[in-house]
Amino acid sequence: LRQGFPEVIFGESKSVGQIERIMAALAARGNNILVTRIDEAKALAVREAFPQARHHAEARCLTLEQKPVEPRGRGTVLVVSAGTSDLPVASEALVTLRMLGNAAEHLYDVGVAGIHRLLARREALFAARVVIVVAGMEGALPSVVGGLVNCPVIAVPTSVGYGASFGGIAALLGMLNSCAAGVTVVNIDNGFGAAVAASMINRE
Amino acid sequence: LRQGFPEVIFGESKSVGQIERIMAALAARGNNILVTRIDEAKALAVREAFPQARHHAEARCLTLEQKPVEPRGRGTVLVVSAGTSDLPVASEALVTLRMLGNAAEHLYDVGVAGIHRLLARREALFAARVVIVVAGMEGALPSVVGGLVNCPVIAVPTSVGYGASFGGIAALLGMLNSCAAGVTVVNIDNGFGAAVAASMINRE
Amino acid sequence: LRQGFPEVIFGESKSVGQIERIMAALAARGNNILVTRIDEAKALAVREAFPQARHHAEARCLTLEQKPVEPRGRGTVLVVSAGTSDLPVASEALVTLRMLGNAAEHLYDVGVAGIHRLLARREALFAARVVIVVAGMEGALPSVVGGLVNCPVIAVPTSVGYGASFGGIAALLGMLNSCAAGVTVVNIDNGFGAAVAASMINRE
Amino acid sequence: LRQGFPEVIFGESKSVGQIERIMAALAARGNNILVTRIDEAKALAVREAFPQARHHAEARCLTLEQKPVEPRGRGTVLVVSAGTSDLPVASEALVTLRMLGNAAEHLYDVGVAGIHRLLARREALFAARVVIVVAGMEGALPSVVGGLVNCPVIAVPTSVGYGASFGGIAALLGMLNSCAAGVTVVNIDNGFGAAVAASMINRE
Amino acid sequence: LRQGFPEVIFGESKSVGQIERIMAALAARGNNILVTRIDEAKALAVREAFPQARHHAEARCLTLEQKPVEPRGRGTVLVVSAGTSDLPVASEALVTLRMLGNAAEHLYDVGVAGIHRLLARREALFAARVVIVVAGMEGALPSVVGGLVNCPVIAVPTSVGYGASFGGIAALLGMLNSCAAGVTVVNIDNGFGAAVAASMINRE
Amino acid sequence: LRQGFPEVIFGESKSVGQIERIMAALAARGNNILVTRIDEAKALAVREAFPQARHHAEARCLTLEQKPVEPRGRGTVLVVSAGTSDLPVASEALVTLRMLGNAAEHLYDVGVAGIHRLLARREALFAARVVIVVAGMEGALPSVVGGLVNCPVIAVPTSVGYGASFGGIAALLGMLNSCAAGVTVVNIDNGFGAAVAASMINRE
Amino acid sequence: LRQGFPEVIFGESKSVGQIERIMAALAARGNNILVTRIDEAKALAVREAFPQARHHAEARCLTLEQKPVEPRGRGTVLVVSAGTSDLPVASEALVTLRMLGNAAEHLYDVGVAGIHRLLARREALFAARVVIVVAGMEGALPSVVGGLVNCPVIAVPTSVGYGASFGGIAALLGMLNSCAAGVTVVNIDNGFGAAVAASMINRE
Amino acid sequence: LRQGFPEVIFGESKSVGQIERIMAALAARGNNILVTRIDEAKALAVREAFPQARHHAEARCLTLEQKPVEPRGRGTVLVVSAGTSDLPVASEALVTLRMLGNAAEHLYDVGVAGIHRLLARREALFAARVVIVVAGMEGALPSVVGGLVNCPVIAVPTSVGYGASFGGIAALLGMLNSCAAGVTVVNIDNGFGAAVAASMINRE
Ligand SMILES: Nc1ncnc2c1ncn2[C@@H]1O[C@H](COP(=O)(O)O)[C@@H](O)[C@H]1O
Ligand SMILES: Nc1ncnc2c1ncn2[C@@H]1O[C@H](COP(=O)(O)O)[C@@H](O)[C@H]1O
Ligand SMILES: Nc1ncnc2c1ncn2[C@@H]1O[C@H](COP(=O)(O)O)[C@@H](O)[C@H]1O
Ligand SMILES: Nc1ncnc2c1ncn2[C@@H]1O[C@H](COP(=O)(O)O)[C@@H](O)[C@H]1O
Ligand SMILES: [Mg+2]
Ligand SMILES: [Mg+2]
Ligand SMILES: [Mg+2]
Ligand SMILES: [Mg+2]
Ligand SMILES: [Mg+2]
Ligand SMILES: [Mg+2]
Ligand SMILES: [Mg+2]
Ligand SMILES: [Mg+2]
To answer: Which segments constitute the PurE domain (chains A, B, C, D, E, F, G, H) (predicted)?
Structure first.
């Protein structure tokens, strides 16, 4: 990320040793650091070397703030999610958004099968500059949200579900076929990527 | 259909001659007849032999009523559809429902991206004994409807759309993964099958 | 489930602690509770906090009846299953049906390759108001059953099989293409969803 | 086919000229000839050059018998099919079987949704040395037949259907997952291949 | 589009008569109108009723400007495309962008296999507020562009190609897996949708 | 298997206790028993209760012969396999064939990329009444074998391979498209099913 | 093609007018020109403007040689194909190879089900510097050829076949899983691409 | 590998005992040996029996050089890779290339989203006789490299990624659709196969 963003480390296929070595090198330059896709065990191990790092367990992220994050967005980025199983992806988006200097808020437990809970939160929706919608199963939430708001909507399919959800394919296809204009889509479970795109949109 | 229903002919792969021969045999027994999946040209040709038959152009059906259809349902079956391209499938369901003796109504142009048009028709939804929801694209409408009503919802995916709609697969998967309880699904574009199932549910 | 149903908790991605917290809150309101997709270990742990809860091991369910389940269906819901590997899904449907107040019965070990065992049970089939058919492999049973009965048939594909069964896709596709009228389909392994839909159909 | 079989020409991607040239060469050697996958127009054109050839319109085949077909099977090969749309594939199998010297019979209109029509023909089933089952849609018929007979069953999926039949994939998967022992499968619409295999099985 | 945008008609499955009726109704209200997915023949027919409408042949669009389009974006939206077969989709995006009040430019013939042609146009890339990248085949262009720019990139896969391009699936998957941050994706061939999203991002 | 075959138990999803109970019941009737898909640990446990049972480790089978297997085939069934990873499936076929009373032989290590090793064994091929060909990867072996022999060939795709072998789909598709006449196919890894079909073909 | 190759025009989605304009521009520079994927009608039309161009009907190519093609390969490139339906793709490869200065030969009608015809041509195989193998259906030919030769083999799957050939997917997967070392694969029907790669390999 | 290459053992599905037995037999003949797909634990165990064998941990290979590898290529084979997760596959290619007598070099960390790092290494690219490009995710790197160089490019998709990368399918499809001429493709993660093909190309 050559854009004044913090340095980002994709933790998934890296060992504790590899993560620590990369963090040490980046930290030496004074940068803020975001590690994504790091599981509980690895995060605890890394924190022994970097006790000042913060572990965001639900988001599976680790952050190291060596200098205050500079606020830089024009408005608020709202993350909307439905079921509890979508929370890790929504949290990854939220942690990323904040590390990138955005004001970010979370509207959760607002699935399409209970449309009134969503409509009751209309104000939050209308106040956003960008909305990230995280949803698994049938992936219908971005269409409903996109029909309500006038701002860009970034849809994140999640791998939540079973049977014919096919690890997120059902949600992904639903989102790509959204009949609401202004909806764009990122890869399954890619809360990080949605947050980076939202952050670029939100930039002044 | 061994259930006192009218005789049904699946017109798709049959020639005008074949359809006429089968109709003649069934008509001789005094039955009502429903021909589905019959295109404009074939329907016009068949009507020359059976001038009393009625052509339902949008539904691609032909009906021959030799005796009045006996009303037999306990309540109303409501067919809900979104875009104009879903109308043929919704119409096939409606024609079938009526030939099977059901009171049937149609709520159309109520897609998920304009949720208020749907909510404005709440009464119609609450009054139904069964709801058939016909939708293409992301197939999200059954989830929203299923969240509003307490009666059974039969979802019919349509082959409407382009690109990643894959001829109705996106809608089909969305509906199979519906997070609303009480939703069951039939084959892509199968308005006829949904109507038969709804009719069995609606029977006294 | 806003329909006077018991409260339902989807146990799959929840920890013992989460399940206990939700159960405590719901129990305080006096409701009956159904937990689905809860494995042996979790069920035993939760029962330490709720000793009066009943564990349905094969169905992977836990039920808490604080007040007697009120009978509310018009007839019997029959669950039909083929191989022994389909039993967990059939059991999930049965437990759900009974918690929702239905008279429910089970016809098992009646696969399509031994058609006479099924035909020998004709009476049970004809007596049902709704039939739920649970089958893996080629998913052919709903077609045979649907051809025999006049009532609605809800087909549940299971993930049983290997190779080209593709985790239930073969059975799912078979059921969606059923040539028997009146068959609708739910997601792979979704015994719960089939039971809720059957219960709505069965309601007086 | 190096097995004393007649010469076979796959007509699909060949022009009338190409077919005539190949037929002339083979006919000169005194062989019997079978042309498969030849459409009406091509067949009529080829018959102008070979008036003694016979056109099997439904089977889309052309046969030229220059010498009597020698009977060579041990028993009867029975071709079983369900809907009218499966007839072309069943006919291709029948024409091929007879050109290969087999006694072949046809049992049709016996789908799984009307199991009694099939059971009423039990004798024909039990009398066969090999059964070829041709079916589209859910492809369930081979399982039922395989459960009734003790002889080998060759299943031919057809591309009949719409929506989630996916041009025969649903039927193909159903047949590969058949729970009846002794069922083997050939390619979608491959009535010819099934007949050749059946003929080898039937050989004395 | 409830956002002060012109009225949009999706022309694909509509007859000339239907399009004219909708246009007449919208035109009566004084709105600007954009018809997408309208083929040559239909466009010429509609222009007889609306001679002041403009036909954008390559974009398969028809526009009717009854009042000047009000400029409303903060910067330029750049549409980047590779091969000549991607031009219709790129043009649909450009026509839509301009009807929505954006300054829009086009950079074409800059595929990934000739990276220097793209690098030679660096300035145009750096000057954009949003970039729409239209590409078929392997869909690699958004990754390269996304690596060069700091602004949001919207990727549009096209159905261009043959064999294993599977009607745009290869390009779609490539774009969803883009290793460049800030890339979001729309449906195959959906130049219109990309333009609406870009327009929302570009809004002041 | 209602055909005078031994009793067969599909061991995969059954516990040691379940297998023992079924075996005890069947053994009491004096039958021979074949258990397929039973792993090492389960087989050892079951053998404690049935010490006279024989464990075929590579085939993952257990057999109990209470009376001598009666020979009943007309000729030899030849099992042909390529790589060492195909051996378990080939062995399952061999154990099954012998329990069903067939003379069975094994030709192994004869892949298509070393065609001379196969040709060197021509005699064994020509001597067979039925050939079962077991192969993973590209699944090409049945085509080559089918081109050499005049008897029926049953192809068994295996889940051997990685990447684009997709758990046996590549081999399965290759076999379904075999250009050699007389080849039929069973499910991926289904050595048992191939053996049952071969046994029915081989019957006198 | 920045490699001293002739100029290449992909004719598929281009009009006669577009092809003529591009040809005129390239011809003015004195280059040799190869047009691929040009159908009969277009080719005839273009030849009116460029009477000296040569039409390769089976290969669907048009070539314009303004200067003699300079021979530049180290050895012979052998194109091997099986069925007659593979000939267009094989021919496209041959025309391309010759325009690129290679000595190219064609070995045809040598499918895997008749292995002896292939083995009879061993010499031609052993003499080649590169072999291009063109095959549809099960795509097994490259494995057999690759097992015989020591030089690089480029496999071209063709869209020939029906049913489970899925427009060339079966052949493509077979080739990607080839158990013969030294086999690489290009896109379905891409005879042109195979020839370019072979030409680069063959370069001195 | 009948080509004077070292003996190669595919370690994946073999036990330590099996590998040792095969190695002992081959070593007795004086050959060099390459074991691929051997995990850490197995490699350590095998090295106890063959202490002179060398373990290449990242490449998951074991090599035994009993005689010096004879250099035999005409030029250098360059292996290019993008992310760190692609390193095991790149390393497998490198180890194989060297065992086959090629001069081989590695250019890594040069993904398409940072095109300048790749362009900075232009010389290395231009100096190669063959380039192997290893990439996961969107698989775009071979197109960019193929556009820069004139020599053959062998693309190796890797199973790196998540969600819609589908275990390497996205990268595989991208590479098969590469718009750069001269690119051929091997199976997902098949670094070994790419190296064998490159070695054959590089041979004098
Ligand atoms: N549109 C339809 N979709 C699916 N099945 C249908 C349709 N129309 C009729 N059928 C079924 O097809 C049967 C008649 O098929 P056939 O004998 O081929 O005319 C009827 O009994 C119905 O069950
Ligand atoms: N090319 C297009 N692709 C996808 N959606 C479109 C396209 N053109 C128009 N639309 C949408 O279709 C709606 C109009 O649909 P309709 O009422 O059927 O004409 C518009 O509001 C747009 O959101
Ligand atoms: N390996 C196998 N693959 C497929 N089917 C099998 C296999 N082994 C046994 N079967 C079938 O499974 C039936 C027994 O199933 P079960 O009653 O569940 O033990 C037998 O009659 C066989 O038809
Ligand atoms: N049959 C073909 N298949 C794939 N690519 C081709 C084919 N013919 C030409 N090409 C490529 O298409 C490029 C020309 O494309 P275009 O500028 O659209 O005519 C050439 O440089 C070739 O690399
Ligand atoms: Mg909106
Ligand atoms: Mg509801
Ligand atoms: Mg019925
Ligand atoms: Mg049987
Ligand atoms: Mg960027
Ligand atoms: Mg043969
Ligand atoms: Mg070789
Ligand atoms: Mg190049």
So the answer is: 75-204
